[in-house]
Amino acid sequence: VSARAAALAGNSLTGLFTLARARGAVDLAVGTPGCPRTPHALVEEAARALRAGRNQYEHPAGDPGLRQWIAETAGDGADPDREITITAGATEALYVALLSTLDPGDEVVLFSPGYEQFAAAVALVGARPRFVPLHAPDWRHDPAELAAAFTPRTRAVLLNTPANPTGRVLTAGELRDIAGLCARWNTTAICDEVYRGFVFDGHEHLSVARVPELAGRSIVIGSLSKSHAVSGWRLGFLRSDPERTTALRRVHELTTNGTAAPLQAAAARAAGSADPEEIRREMGRRRDLAQHIFSGLGMKSAPVEGGCFLFADISPLTGGREDCTAFVRRLLDRSGVLLAPGAPFFADLAQGRNWVRIAFNRPEETLREAEHRLAAG
Ligand code: PMP
Ligand code: GLN
């Protein structure tokens, strides 16, 4: 195998997913949702599209109706024909964004802790990560540390708001500062906004596409995986300016050339049937319940501003004597509840030893069952 493939550690969640299934555990580790529920209309439309014979290639840029819907939900005049591209999930979108922005050896600024796949994808495209620490307890960065990470070789900054695993939502001020650095160093802001609909307590999601100083230098990554509970459908998207979109589409044509046509058709017809306000309220209730359950056990976490994860400090329970992996194993053995060890989200694994990630995009019954098992165990 190639050196770059050999160097990949593998996704830490894939093993957990298998383990949780084998043990019949309540899985609060992997971000696979049961909340919000998959809209019934989407499933009906998918069946209809298959029966209607929508079984051949879609245009590589994606179903025009779905692009139109995505452009409308952006709410700021995005052009579906020249600025939106449908991808096989946010996962493909990330890879396409990096490949069309970076050459081998270029530097990418990204935060730690952050979504595990970011660092791996940066490595896979042969670029060099420059990690900026987020500081507990509230997971903000130090502006001086961020500024110091930019160099003449910086070609991209990789953002995620609302963030996995920290639950932070970037503020207008933070985005403006980042935009200033991007302008100064001629850098593209690539922002994973897959959790854009999940924001709580008056926090507002602000897309990089709406930051004036980032005009012409931003790429948005989106997905229906979590917003519509269709992670198995592999529906994601990219939004950028027309010039970059041309480059993105060229790379996209060489990676997947498009995702499942009948599922795109179904989403085009029925994605709008989900009520964003209802979903936001529902997710807020799940967050409150998860915070109640896990703070009740003695774990400490910052208030979750957005996204679908609680990132919790286990040291009040372990006294620092047990690391996150041992803790997660013990909880699985004793209570049949699976959490995600926090270490893989950190550039330096040792810094994550006291953290676990808890996915709360679950039906209430699932969270109650976890509560029950944890109390019994
Ligand atoms: N980005 C983030 C921040 C995620 O948490 C996830 C999935 N949990 C993804 C991307 C992957 O999304 P998709 O299923 O659309 O590939
Ligand atoms: N993104 C999902 C999560 O963070 C996992 C997706 C995957 O790794 N296949 O839980």
TrEMBL record:
UniProt-listed Enzyme Commission number(s): 2.6.1.-
GO annotations of cellular component type: cytoplasm
Residue ranges of domain Aminotransferase class I/classII large in the record: 26-373
One Gene Ontology molecular-function label: kynurenine-oxoglutarate transaminase activity
Domain of life where this protein originates: Bacteria
Entries under InterPro entries matching the protein: Aminotransferase_I/II_large (IPR004839), Kynurenine-oxoglutarate_AT (IPR051326), NHTrfase_class1_PyrdxlP-BS (IPR004838), PyrdxlP-dep_Trfase (IPR015424), PyrdxlP-dep_Trfase_major (IPR015421), PyrdxlP-dep_Trfase_small (IPR015422)
Cofactor: pyridoxal 5'-phosphate
Leading EC class: transferase
Coiled-coil ranges (or none): none
Keyword tags: Aminotransferase, Pyridoxal phosphate, Transferase
Membership in a protein family: Belongs to the class-I pyridoxal-phosphate-dependent aminotransferase family.
Protein name stated in the entry: Aminotransferase
